[in-house]
Amino acid sequence: MDLAQSASGLALGLFMWGHMFFVSTILISKDAMWAVTKFFEGYFFFGTAYPGVVSAVVAGVLVLVMVHAFLAMRKFPANYRQYRAFTGHRALMGHEDTTLWWWQFLTGFALFFLAAVHLYQMLMHPGDIGPYGSADRVWSGRWWPIYLVMLFAVELHGGIGLYRLCVKWGWFEGKDPAASRKRLKTAKWALTVFFLVLGLATLGAYMKIGYEHRDLVGERHTPSWVVPDPKEKAP
Ligand code: HEM
Q: Cα separation of 123 and 45, whole Å?
C-alpha cells in the first residue's frame, strides 16, 4: 500500500507540474492557451474539437486522487490520543521533516474538498476551458478564491510529497545521504517557490482578463487565424 501511495503521489505530482505549465500559457497569449486547450480536445488531430477527451483525462485523474487519498488516510491520526501524541512530539522535537509531514497532512486534508470541486467542474464542463471560458469562471464565476487556496495547498503538498518520496525510497541519495538530503530540501523549496510564483501570476492573468471581459461573459475566444468551427455550440 505504501508503494501504491508513492506511485499515485508521484504520478499526481508530475501531472500537477504539467498542469501548471498548460494553464500558465495564458501568460504567453490568449491564442497560446487556446491552442493548448484545443490540442487536448483533439482539434489538431481530428480537425474538430472533442471536449469529451478532456473529461476522460479528468476521470482518470479523479480516480488517481481518490486512490491516493484513500491510501493516505492510513497515516492520519486515528484518534485524539494519537493526534495529541503527534502534535506534542512535533512541538517538542522541532524536527523540520516532521513539521513538513504535518503540513502535508493538513494540505492533503484540504485537497480532499478543494480538488473534488475543481475536478467535478472540469469533468462536467470540459468545453468551457479556454482563454475567456476560464477567465470568466475565475472572475465572474468567483472561482479565484478557491484557486488561490488550492494553489498553495497543492504546491506545498506536492512539493513536500516529492521530497519525501526521494528520502523514503533513497532516490538521489549518493555517497553522503545527509548532504544530498540538504540539496533535496533546497531543490524542493526552489520548485515550490517557482510554481507558486507561476501559479499566482497565472491566476492574476485570468482574473484580469475575466474582469475586462465581465460584460461579455460566455463569448468565446477564437484566434484571428482560425475559421470558427460551425459545430462548436455557443455556451
Ligand atoms: C485533468 C484534470 C484537470 C484539468 C483538466 C484541470 C484544468 C484546469 C484549468 C483549465 C484551469 C484554469 C482555470 C479554469 O479554467 O477554471 C485550472 C486551474 C487550476 N487547477 Fe486544475 N485541472 C485538473 C486537475 C487539477 C488538480 C488535480 C488540481 C489540484 C489538486 C488542480 C489545481 C488547479 C489550480 C490550483 C488551478 C489555478 C491555477 C492558477 O491559476 O494558478 N487542477 N485547472
A: 21
